[in-house]
Structures are given as C-alpha cells and as structure tokens.
Amino acid sequence: MLYTGKGDDGTMKTINSGVRVSKSSAISEALGSMDEINSFLGICKVKSAEEKLKLGEKNISDIVHNIQQTLFIIQAELAGSDKRVDEGKVLEMESIIGEIEKILPPITTFFISGGTELGAIFDVARTIARRAERRVVQVNREEVQKVDPVTLKYLNRLSSILYALARLTNHLSGIKEEPPSYK
C-alpha cells in the first residue's frame, strides 16, 4: 500500500515507535533530509555509471551505491532501529578520500561549481549532505534521540567524499578547476 492516510493530520510514526510525531519535528526533518540525500545520490550513481568513471579499479557508481547502503543504516538508526554504522565504513570512506587526494592537486582556494555536469551534481549532493548532517546533529543535540558517534563521524565525512568526487570527476574529464575572482 502506497498510502495509509494516517499522516493526513501532519503526523508520522517511525519504525520502532508507537508514538506519532509532527512531520515538522526535528526527527522528521532529519529523516526527510537523509531520504533526500540518499535519493539524490541515485542521480550521482546513474551519471557515474553512464560515464564509466573509475577510481583505480573501483567504479565510482559502486562507491556511491555503497554510500547509499550505509545511509539506509543511518535512516534506520534515526527511526529507532538498533542498526548502527560500523567504524569500518568511516575508515573505508577516509581511504577513498585519500586515494582521490593523491590524484588531485592540493586545495588552495574555493572552486566554482560546474566544471562538468556530474561534478556540479556531486557539489549539489555535498550541500544536501551537509544539511542532512545538520538535521541529524540537531536531533542528537536536542536529545530527541541519541545518535551514535560513529554515525556523526560518517555524516561529517560524507560531504568530504562528495566534494572529493566532484573534483575527481572534473579532473578525469580534463576540466581545470576555476577559483572565484572575487571581483
């Protein structure tokens, strides 16, 4: 069933909670933002697959797919499940960022988004990920629900890997990054 009508009053219920909460609550905002980044990463994954982009032997689309899988764990945690992100997922993400950093020139300034379509899409994903992270931090800070520290660490790395992937896709396409002129 695609609808129940139970949310018509502006409330929702999470997986393991018998309590209905407002759809404008901090937990609803966090879950919605996590859903948004996970869905948007679907675009990144499809475009990466179409362009057959790789990081060494790894398909970038597979990297993105693995991130999506982990985001479902985070969504389950926020909804009250006992599922948690394993520290190994954070280390894996840091390793990928490290691989990308070895390929790219060092960052010395900001860059204007839009070198390539996929680079721009990854940049938008990065901003959505940052918002989702802020929403999850709000849930944790307001003690609406305790969020595992590894989850917070993973979400902090998420925007970093998306920034690295934006830069990498531009680099692999031969696009030179353009800093802002500030004029």
Task: Report on this structure.
The chain is mostly helical and 183 residues long. The protein has a single domain, classed as Hypothetical Protein Ta1238, Chain: A (Up-down Bundle), CATH 1.20.1200.10. The chain is 60% helix and 5% strand. The protein has 5 helices and 4 strands, in the order ββαββαααα. The strands form 2 sheets. Strands 1-2 form a two-stranded antiparallel sheet. Strands 3-4 form a two-stranded antiparallel sheet. A hairpin with a 2-residue loop joins strand 3 and strand 4. The longest helix has 25 residues. The chain is elongated.
Oligomer designation: single chain
The name CATH uses for the topology is Hypothetical Protein Ta1238, Chain: A
C-alpha end-to-end distance: 55 Å
State the CATH class.
Mainly Alpha
Summarize the structure.
The protein is 60% helix and 5% strand. It is mainly alpha-helical and 183 residues long.
Name its key features.
two-stranded antiparallel ribbon, mainly alpha, two-stranded antiparallel sheet, 5 helices, 4 strands, 60% helix, 183 residues, Hypothetical Protein Ta1238, Chain: A
Task: List the topology elements.
Blueprint: E1 11-13, E2 20-22, H1 26-50, E3 54-55, E4 58-59, H2 60-78, H3 87-103, H4 117-141, H5 149-172
Antiparallel strand pairs: 1-2, 3-4
